[in-house]
Amino acid sequence: MIQPSDRLFNKNFTLFFAGQCAALLGSTLYYVVLVLYLKQMTGSATIISVVELLAFLPWVVLGPFAGALVDRTNKKTVIVWSYFLRGMLMILLFLFSLDYFLGLKLIDIGIAQFHFSPSFPFTLYAVFSVTLCMGIIDSAYNAALYSIIPTILTKEKIQKGNSLMQGAGGVLAMIGNALGGIFFSVLGGALAFLLNGISYLSAAFAGLFITVGQQGPGEMPASPARSFGGEVKEGFFFIRANKGLRNQTIVYALSNLLFPTVMLGLPFLIEDVMKLGSAYYGYLLSMLTMSSIVGYFVFGLFKTTEKQNYVVICAIFIIEALLFLFLSFTTNVFFVFGLLSLLSLCMAISRLINTSLKQKVIPEALRGRVFGTLDSINGGLVPLSFALSGIVIDLLNKKILLLFFFIFIIYSLLAIAFVLDRSIRHFYLQKV
Asked: Among 178, 177, 153, 151, which residue's Cα sits nearest to residue 164?
């Protein structure tokens, strides 16, 4: 197997990082413009939520299958084709949006039996189809993304590489979010779709020059004769057999159920509890994004041992529980913004440590299906959490401070379970 260079910015990582940055900036700009585009086209919040669901659902349903497919395929091939196909889909959407905005008959509507109307033009169906296809491609891309980093960086550089990738992703998300509204107002949606397509194709081109070695001896290469269904199950079996990873996944999946509730409650906290203008909600979201960026970049500067990472993770769990307790007793704007920013910073560091550890611990031959399965486990709970969150907030009559206190109690129990679990401790302290 080809061994990666000891340098962080070796040829492979530099090419991958550059392509990922181009794709991230284009896609962030695209998603902001897409919401405004759909609002202009239909004026319906329901349509927007349907598109969000179509983008998210494939990750949940197809994660294990996409992961197994990634493990059967060269990771570079999956990533390059993912970028290329997404780029072509964006160019198709660009052409369809021209048809909507300019009235150009780019498609022969010889299919009048579908009865396209001004409320549901052909372009809207194109958005649905493209979004669903993008979600399917993303389910494979995400599994390949987690899997390829340990093959182009040494184990000592994996955490720094993830820090750089995630921190840069946060910066580009802020830039894309800031520019999206301006871009749509000045140039319209069509050019944003074209720009996103070009960014994906550029990333695909950069990916062509990445060199990724094949699996080495003893790494259980996938055999075409093996059952694909059996390989899909191996992701679940690996998580179940590794008691530390299994228990860690359970604790984090349960804790992740709480954060959609927090995010859903923030607008009510700002406007109904703290009696602030809606602009403060935007300020808060910007602060949360900035805090996570700081967490990724600053912690990534340190070279930490397994023991130090475990101590940090345990401390973060306890700190997060206490932050929810403090949030349940204050409406001071400076304290609230500060506590929530610290919470965002802690979450970023936690994600960085956990992602890097799993990339080191999970065997290369299984990374795709294990990460795909983990995505499905964590992602599958998000819709349930959002559904329950709205009900809980309404039952509490928008008493967000009381909600934070309940979250403190649940989070404290999870923190105690996490810290006292010996298998989780062994999972973090094992030599990798």
From this structure: 153
The Cα angle at residue 431 between residues 427 and 432, in degrees rounded to 5 = 95
Taken in order 89, 94, 100, 104, the sign of the CA dihedral is negative
d(CA 323, CA 357): 25
Per-residue pLDDT tens over the stretch 223-266: 454 576 777 788 888 988 999 999 999 998 888 788 878 877 88
* pLDDT at residue 109 is higher than 50: no
**Of the candidates 343, 345, 327, 344, the residue with the CA atom closest to the CA atom of residue 335:** 327
DSSP secondary structure string, 15-74? HHHHHHHHHHHHHHHHHHHHHHHHHHHH--HHHHHHHHHHHHHHHHHHHHHHHHHHHHS-
d(C-alpha 159, C-alpha 353), whole Å:
7
Q: Which of 32, 148, 125, 141 is nearest to 87 (CA)?
A: 141
- Using a 10 angstrom Cβ sphere, with 0-12 exposed, 13-18 middle and 19 or more buried, the burial of residue 18 is middle
Beta-carbon contacts of 164 under 8 Å, excluding residues fewer than 6 positions away, are 8, 17, 296, 297, 300
Q: Where are the alpha helices (DSSP H) in 73-188?
A: 75-102, 122-152, 155-187
154: helix, coil or strand? coil
pLDDT at 108 (0 to 100): 45
Structural Rg of the chain based on CA atoms: 22
Burial of 256 (0-12, 13-18, 19+ CB in 10 A): middle
Q: What is the C-alpha separation between 152 and 13, in angstroms, rounded?
A: 6
What is the pTM (predicted TM-score) of this model?
0.78
CA 73 to chain centre: 22
405 class by beta-carbon count within 10 Å (0-12 exposed, 13-18 middle, 19+ buried): middle
Confidence of residue 142 (pLDDT cuts 50, 70, 90): confident
pLDDT tens per residue across span 59-74? 778 778 888 888 888 8
Report how far residue 213's alpha carbon sits from residue 150's, in angstroms, rounded to the nearest whole number: 11
Q: What are phi and psi of 166, to 5 degrees?
A: -75, -35
Contact 167, 8 (CB under 8 A): no
Alpha carbon of 309 to those of 67, 162, 314: distances in Å?
A: 27, 15, 9
Note the pLDDT of residue 112.
Answer: 40
Cα(179)–Cα(206) distance, rounded to whole angstroms?
25
Per residue in 299-346, pLDDT (tens digit) is 888 888 899 999 999 999 999 999 999 999 999 999 999 999 999 999
